[in-house]
Amino acid sequence: MSVLENWDQWKNFLGDRLHHAQDDGMSNEVISDLAYEIGGYLSNQVEAKNPQEKVLADLWSVASEEEQHAIANVMVKLVQNNSTH
Predict the structure, then answer these.
(1) DSSP-assigned states of every residue in 16-44
(2) How many domains does the chain have?
(3) Whole-angstrom Cα distance, residue 63 to residue 19?
């Protein structure tokens, strides 16, 4: 099963990556910009694998650029406390 197919596994995966980036000294601004870029890529290039991802893709598709940045920032906050470490 792909990490994208299970919402909790996906959040844990993102949380782990976020903590690694922070531990390596990546600034919150850079993390936010990367989250925005990844959100755009996922929305445009990757088919949603679960209902939560479908909702995010639908929201992303109708959001302005400013709103997309807000969605990305909220996703960062969501996964901040989700990691296996």
Answers:
(1) HHHHHHHHTT--HHHHHHHHHHHHHHHHH
(2) 1
(3) 27
Contact (CB, 8 A) for 85 and 20: no
Q: Which domain holds residue 68?
A: 3-80
Evaluate whether residue 51 is within a structural domain.
Answer: yes
DSSP state of 2: -
List the pLDDT tens digit at each of the 85 positions of the chain. Answer: 566 677 888 888 888 888 989 999 999 899 999 999 988 988 888 888 889 889 999 999 999 999 999 999 999 998 887 655 5
CA distance 55 to 51: 6
Measured distance CA(22)–CA(33) in Å, rounded: 14
Residue 85 lies in a domain: no
